[in-house]
Specification:
It is built from 4 helices and no strands. By secondary structure, it is mainly α.
Length: about 130
């Protein structure tokens, strides 16, 4: 039979076991969150380098804001929130980079089309001047 002194000891042991499990659960989220924050920071930097702020300012602002919040969550050891925000920032950054790359490609295409138009006009003029 248990005596009265063993109940507080049992409760204390249970409390310690629960705290240990929670601690292990929280630290197991730290590594994926840290990795995700680092990868997302690189994605934001890449998007900025691709002129994402110029061609996709809304997406870049969203990515930067989410990265700032992810860093704050890491500082407060809220790894689940940090992971979610970092992943969302990465998506926004990749969208911004894609929009920037698309806009640049469109500009190149437009310039080529204009060059072709000018060449056709010059060719037509040259052909007209050779007619008797």
């Amino acid at each position: 039979m248990m005596n009265k002194n063993s109940i507080p000891g049992l409760l204390s042991s249970c409390t310690l076991a629960i705290a240990a499990l929670v601690s292990v659960g929280c630290t197991s989220m730290k590594e994926p969150a840290s990795t995700s924050v680092a990868v997302s920071k690189a994605a934001v930097d890449n998007a900025a380098g691709a002129d994402g702020a110029q061609f996709a300012p809304v997406e870049m602002a969203a990515a930067r804001e989410k990265m700032a919040r992810a860093n704050q969550a890491m500082a407060t050891k809220d790894y689940k929130t940090a992971l979610a925000l970092a992943d969302a920032a990465q998506v926004d950054a990749k969208l911004a980079q894609s929009k920037a790359n698309s806009a640049k490609a469109q500009a190149v295409s437009d310039a080529l089309q204009e060059d072709l138009r000018v060449l056709r006009e010059e060719l037509a003029r040259a052909n007209n001047s050779k007619l008797p």
